[in-house]
Amino acid sequence: MEYINNYIEANKDRFLNELFDFIRIPSVSAKPENKQDMYAAAEFLKNKLLEAGVDFAEVNETAGHPVVYAEKMIDPKLPTVMVYGHYDVQPAEPLELWHSKPFEPEVRDGKIWARGADDDKGQLYMQVKAFELMNKTGNLACNIKFMVEGEEEVGSMNLGDYCKANKVKLKSDVIVVSDTTIIANDTPSITTGLRGLSYVQVEVTGPNRDLHSGLYGGAIVNPANALAKMIAKLHDDNYKITIPGFYDDVVEISREERDLMALAPFNLENYKKSLDIDAVKGETGYLPKEHTGIRPCLDVNGMWSGYTGEGAKTILPSKAFAKISMRLVPNQDPEIISRLISEYLTKIAPEGVRVKVEYLHGGNAYVSPVDIAAYKAAEFAMEKTFGKQPIPVRSGGSIPIIALFEKELEVKSILMGFGLESDAIHSPNENYPLFNFYKGIETIPYFFNKFSKTAFV
Amino acid sequence: MEYINNYIEANKDRFLNELFDFIRIPSVSAKPENKQDMYAAAEFLKNKLLEAGVDFAEVNETAGHPVVYAEKMIDPKLPTVMVYGHYDVQPAEPLELWHSKPFEPEVRDGKIWARGADDDKGQLYMQVKAFELMNKTGNLACNIKFMVEGEEEVGSMNLGDYCKANKVKLKSDVIVVSDTTIIANDTPSITTGLRGLSYVQVEVTGPNRDLHSGLYGGAIVNPANALAKMIAKLHDDNYKITIPGFYDDVVEISREERDLMALAPFNLENYKKSLDIDAVKGETGYLPKEHTGIRPCLDVNGMWSGYTGEGAKTILPSKAFAKISMRLVPNQDPEIISRLISEYLTKIAPEGVRVKVEYLHGGNAYVSPVDIAAYKAAEFAMEKTFGKQPIPVRSGGSIPIIALFEKELEVKSILMGFGLESDAIHSPNENYPLFNFYKGIETIPYFFNKFSKTAFV
Question: Taking the CB of residue A251, how many other CB atoms lie within 10 A of it?
Fold first, then answer.
C-alpha cells in the first residue's frame, strides 16, 4: 500500500502545522476561564474534518463542553468504525517547569513539545489525517464516524447522556481510540485493560478562622495535622488500602495471566533512574507492572492548607483539603468506592474537626478481548508498520468512558494508541515524537482495510 | 492625674488618624515585594517620634529590615525605660475572608479593623502616643528609649546582632512591650510567660516530575501520602509529640503553680463556641489553658502538594511541603528541637522519597518574675485604670526576642499588652477595640510614674 507513505510524505509538513494550530488553542477543560477556547478547539476540529471530506460535521452542545460529531457513510453494507478522542487537555501548571511554553508547540530533538502534543490532540489528529489520507486517495474501506469530546480530562460527565440520546446516530461496529501508549518504538503493544477511577475531594474544617498558632496551639485539633493523620490511615505498612470493603469486588487475576504479563519487558533499574527514585514500593506481593496493571491504588493528587507562601507564618489553619484519586480494577464500582472512602474518613476523623467528602468524578475499569476481529485487525496493522507483533498489555490509566461505551452503545473499543510513557502526559514538558505521530497515520489505514474484510466474517 | 484623660480627650481623633496612616503602609516583613513599604513604615515612625519630642530618632540599617531607634534622656539619675515593639505585620492572606480591606483601616462596632490594628501597630502606637502625652504635658518621669524592629513576624533574625552591636546605646532598666493580650476588659492581666518557637519547612521529593496518577499510581511512593504519614507520626493518640528527645529539657510545672493558673477564668463552652468546634483536644493530662501556657506543641502551619486548583487533575505529585512550628517552654532550645525533628522525619521517611528539613527561625521561651519593681509598677498602673488587680498569666505565643534581650542586654521585659484574644491577630479580620487603644495610652503614664519612684529603691 505504497499510496500511504506517498501521501504522508507529500503532506507531512501541513499535517504538523495543522496540529500546531490545534495545540495553540488552550482547551483546558478544568478551567472556567478557558470556556471560549473549548468552542474554538471544537470548531477547529469540525472544519478540519469537513476539509478532510466527511459528509457532515457538527458541534453538538451538551450540559458541559460540546461534542464534535462527524461521519462519512460510503456503503451501509460495509462495517462502520467510530473514532473516539478528546480535544480537551490537562491544565499546564506548574508553568515554571516547562522548558518551552505549553501552548506554543515546537519541535526539538525530533519531538513535539506542548500540552496536548500526545494527550490527546496529537493522537486524535493522527486519526483525522489518516481519514483524510484514505478518503483523498480513494482507499476508505469502512464507513467512519467521529465522536470527539471536550471533557475527558474532567471525567466525561456529559458523554454518557450524549451517547444515550444519540444511540442510532452513533451505531458502529467498533470504536477505535488512540489515547494510550505502546511499550517502545521497537516493542509495539495494544492496551487491553484500563483501570477505573474514583476521584474525591476532602475538606477538613477545624476552628472557624485561621488562629494564632501560639495562642491556640496545643489546645485544639489542627485540621492539617488531622487530615495528614487521616490520609496516613488509608494505607497500611504493606501499602494495602485500609478502607473497609475496598477490595471486596476485586477479582483476583490468575497466576497464569500474571505469568504472561511478566513477559512484557520491564527494567527496574531504568524505571527508577528515569524517575530519579531510589526505591519502588507498592502493595506487597505484586510486581511494579502489576501494581499499575491489575491492582487498584489510592493517591493524593493535591493537598493544601494554611500558609503556603514564602517564609514563616505562625497560624493554625481553619481548613485543610486533599484531592484523592483511586484507580480501580474491573468489577469495582466508582460510586460505591467513593462512598466507602467517605464513610471511612468520616469515621476516622478525630473529635474537634468536621469532614466533607465530595465525589468529583469516576468511571469503571475496562478489559477488551484479544480474539475479536477488531483486535486482530489492529494487531495486523501494527505488525505491518512496526514489523513486530504487538503485545497485549493492561495500562494503569483510565478512560472512564470506554466502559460506558460498552454499556450504552453495546460496542467494544480497541485502544490503538501510539504514545510512549516518556511523553510526560499530564506533566510539564509533555511531548510526542514525530516518529510516533507519522507512524500512527501510517498504521490506521491498515486497520481499516483489514477490518473491512474481517468484521462480518 | 487628670492631665492624662484631658490630653487623650483633646487628641483622640488625631491619635486614631495617625494610627490609620501607619496601618495603611503594608509592611509585611515576609514578602520581598513589600521591601519599600518596610522603609516607609520605619520613616513614618521616626517622624512621629520626632514630632512627639524625642532627642533624636534614626532608621538603623540591619542585614534585613531596619530598626527604628529613638531616645529622650531627661536625667541620667532617673531610671530608663526602653519600649520595644515591631512595625512589621503578618501577611493578610487569605484576602477573600476579610470583610474590609486589610490595609484600609476602618472603625466598625467600636473596633479598628485592619492587619496590624492590634499586632503590633495599634499596641506600639499606644506607647508612642503615651510618650507624647507625658512629654508634651511635662510629666515624663523616666528616660525613654524606643527600639522598634521590622522582623518580629519573621523571627527577629537581625535584632540579636543589633543588640550585641549597640549594648551601650540600648542600656536600660527595663524593657516594656505592648504586644500581648489581657484576659478581658473587665479582667486585666499581665503576661509573665511566653513560649519559645522552632519553625521548620519540610520538603519531600518523590519522582523527578509530576506523573500521570494512572500510569504510575500504585507502583511508586507518592510524596504527598508519604508526607501525610510522616506528619501523622509526629503525635501519638494522646497528642503527645513522638519526636525522640523532644520533652527531655522540659521542666515540669509544680501542682501548686498549676492550681494557681487554674484560677484564671476560662469557660470551655464559650471557648468552643467562639471557635465553632465541637471538642477541644490536646496532650492528655493537661487543661486547655495549660496546653497553651505550660506545654510545648507542634502544629502544621501550611501544607501543599500537587494540584490545588479547581476540579480534578490526575497527577502523582513530584513534591510535597509542610511548614511546621513547635511552640516551646522554658529550657527547650529551638535549634536542638529543629535538629531533633529533622533527624526524626528523615528516619521515618519511607523508602522511595527524599526529605529536606530547613530551620526557618526560632527563639527561646521566657518567664518573667512577679516580684520586681517593673512588674509591680505595671500591676499598679493597670489596677489604677482598670480598677482591678491584673492576673499574671502565661501566654502560648512567642516573642522570641524577649529571651534574647535578657541574654544580650541583661534586662528584664515587662509584657504590658492590651489586646484581646478576639482581636484575631494573624487571622483575617484582625481588629483592635478603640477602648483598648485608649486604655493603653491612659495606663502607660501610671507605669512610668510608679517605676520612676521604685526602680532604684
Answer: 10
